[in-house]
Write a structure and sequence with these properties.
The chain has 66 residues and is mainly α. Helix content is 73%, strand content 0%. Helix 1 runs antiparallel to helix 2. The radius of gyration is 16 Å and the shape is elongated.
Length: 66
């Protein structure tokens, strides 16, 4: 498989994992498949994810209030 194509697929799987579009186990399996058994370093940061969740909650409450 072309390296550029593989890189794009891995980036997409990582974005699915970060946005929780697919369960983490599925994403890990796909990453292991495309990386030939070696998981690339995850770019997701749990504190960053929590900040996004809090921001989304506040934004949603703001929409309901007004």
């Amino acid at each position: 498989m072309d390296e550029m194509r593989k890189k794009i697929i891995i980036q997409e799987i990582n974005s699915w994992k970060e946005s929780r579009m697919l369960p983490e186990q599925y994403c890990n399996y796909l990453l292991a498949l495309y990386c030939q058994g070696e998981l690339p370093p995850s770019k997701s940061n749990k504190t960053e994810s929590k900040k996004n969740d809090i921001f989304s909650g506040v934004f949603f409450l703001h929409l309901l209030y007004f």
